[in-house]
Amino acid sequence: MTKLFAPYQLQSITLKNRIVMAPMCMYSAKEDGLVTPFHLVHYATRAAGQIGLILLEATAVVPEGRISSNDLGIWDDTHIEGLQQLVTNMQAYGAKTGIQLAHAGRKATVEGDIFAPSAMAFSDAYKTPREMTLADIDNVIEAFKNAAVRARQAGFDVLEIHGAHGYLISEFLSPATNKRSDQYGGSQENRYRLLRQVIDAIRSVWEGPLLVRVSAEDYAQDGTTMEDFIVFSRWMKSQGVDLVDVSTGGVVQADIHPFPGYQVPHAEAIKLGANIPTGAVGLITIAQHAEEILQNNRADLIFLGRVLLREPYWPLHAAKELGAKIEPPVQYVRGW
Ligand SMILES: Cc1cc2nc3c(=O)[nH]c(=O)nc-3n(C[C@H](O)[C@H](O)[C@H](O)COP(=O)(O)O)c2cc1C
């Protein structure tokens, strides 16, 4: 039996296989952050392609926390209906559904003020953010909590907190972007405080599987390293996080040279060092490669990004390659 196509128990839910669609912004909402017909087709197609768990793209918990004005939103009750429809469409094909709750911090490109732990712009092309007050921080924690309630109402199976890629939470985690002198800056414990409080707030309203995506390395001298994330992941585990989705980079401008599986060592180190399940992501496109990562216990789930933009039926092809038997949607059997 292949491991890629073996079911996986993620806390209370069973995934039919270990293939996860990584969150990918489609920048296809309008200013209002509502689901559009594009999203309905896009996500349902990947569900028909037999992906085990589909994570919706970064979805903003407040309007000023959008990467762009075309991001999906979950800051208002009006968002629930469209998200609910998306969930229903994906579940129709046996996929489990998740949503990535996000705040873009200093990488927001929307109108008006933007916010970050410290008043430092990402680059010349970005606005300088306002340093968040303690009241601003409390509001963001509350926004993540309210978003979790809305996600539950929409029927999602899984929540993922976006703690990666230089968006708000990862800006707090990294000493390269967090220069605060209060209880949210300085020591590892202080830089982790916002994520700790967001997890606790979400856990107070959400009992289901909870994932956190991290950038486990900044590729910068004054940034975080994998060792920091082993410590952070131990804390996440003690707070009831079920799996760490391990990405890297995006916090500061850095020269990164990706190659197939370049982030797998990070997933492996966190899995071993913090004794918590991890997801591996980054240029994994070949079934045998995915199987190798799982068989060698380097990670527990395989997250696929760009390959699913060009091959929504990747799982069906991968099953053929690995000699696993899975069923296409009943309507398509004659074509398979
Ligand atoms: C179009 C696009 C949009 C993305 N949007 C998000 C996002 O919303 N949230 C996130 O955590 N990562 C995002 N990513 C990163 C992917 O989830 C993934 O980690 C990355 O593409 C590496 O995996 P891959 O080599 O399989 O594509 C995005 C990537 C792409 C290509």
TrEMBL record:
SUPFAM superfamilies: FMN-linked oxidoreductases. The keyword Flavoprotein applies. The keyword Oxidoreductase applies. It is an enzyme of class 1 (oxidoreductase). Its EC number is 1.6.99.1. One of its GO terms (molecular function) is NADP binding. This is NADPH dehydrogenase. The gene is namA.
